[in-house]
Amino acid sequence: MWQWLTEKIEFPPLHTADADGILALGGDLSSERLILAYNSGIFPWFNDDEPVVWWSPPERFVIFPEKLNISKTMRQVLRKKIFKVTFDKNFPLIIKNCQQQNREGQEGTWITQDMQDAYNLLHKKGVAHSVEVWQDDQIVGGLYGLIIGGVFCGESMFAHRSNASKAGFITLVKTLQNYGLALIDCQTYTQHLGSLGAEMIQRDEFVKILNQEKTKKLLPENWGDLVQAEFV
Question: What b/e sequence results for 188-203 when a residue is b if at least 16 CB atoms lie within 10 Å of its CB, and e otherwise?
Fold first, then answer.
């Protein structure tokens, strides 16, 4: 059963989470606590009128880079360079657009102002990163997340044009795969990511991979220096 956190930067054992995956309530969104959470297989997800809710679901929705599914349509989009993709060019704008994205069946947003402030700070520390998707010199899609060694923890994405977020996500995955990335954590099921090859694995398997990968240093702090994957 979940617990209330104190000011001490720690979390209860993952096996104490309830059946839905709620592990703990309360605490704060300090960089220290957030980094410990992601290194432990935990993430925050809550509404603006709630205390911070910390999750470690019994199953985790993930993509192994080598299993990424790129449809014929998306291969054509990538080859024709319909979109331009960049990394870490405007993190605050990407997280703000993710906050404003309307999502079917979802009222309000979990990306509160406090969340934005916390992840903007993680970006400045080189832990959180953004992907920008451009068309006609305008950002039309993107996503953000955290890098924990050889695991990328995706947080949210948005698109103002069809296929924009897919183009950004596929470019990110293939680029990070070239640097040795082992896993992309998508947290919970979405049809959108399922179409790209995401699958459910047990929490124990996820944590095992995370523990093997989290101490690796594969990428620079500034992702603007990454060499992007080519699609031919």
Answer: eeeeebeebbbebeeb
* Overall residue count recorded for the chain in this entry: 232
**pLDDT (tens digit, 9 = 90+) per residue, 15-73?**
999 999 999 999 999 999 999 999 999 999 998 888 999 999 999 999 999 999 999 99
Dump pLDDT digits (tens) for 135-165.
999 999 999 999 999 999 999 999 999 999 9
User: 209 with 182: CB under 8 angstroms?
Assistant: yes
Tokens 């910390």 found at: 54
Going by pLDDT thresholds of 50, 70 and 90, the confidence category of residue 109 is low
By the 8 A CB rule, do 176 and 85 touch? no
* Distances in whole angstroms, Cα of residue 64 to Cα of each of 15, 79, 143: 24, 22, 18
pLDDT in the model for residue 108: 46
Helices (H), 85-140: 91-100, 113-124
Residue 73, CA atoms < 13 Å, CB-side half-sphere: 6
Residue 18 burial (CB count, 10 A) = 11
Query: Tens of pLDDT along 189-223?
Result: 889 899 999 999 999 999 999 999 999 999 998 99
Distance between CA atoms of residues 11 and 25, nearest Å: 10
Q: Cα(134)–Cα(141) distance, rounded to whole angstroms?
A: 7
What are the Cα distances from residue 24, in Å, to 6, 11, 50? 10, 7, 13
Q: What is the strand order of the sheet 151-159 is part of?
A: 84-87, 128-135, 138-148, 151-159, 183-187, 59-63, 199-202
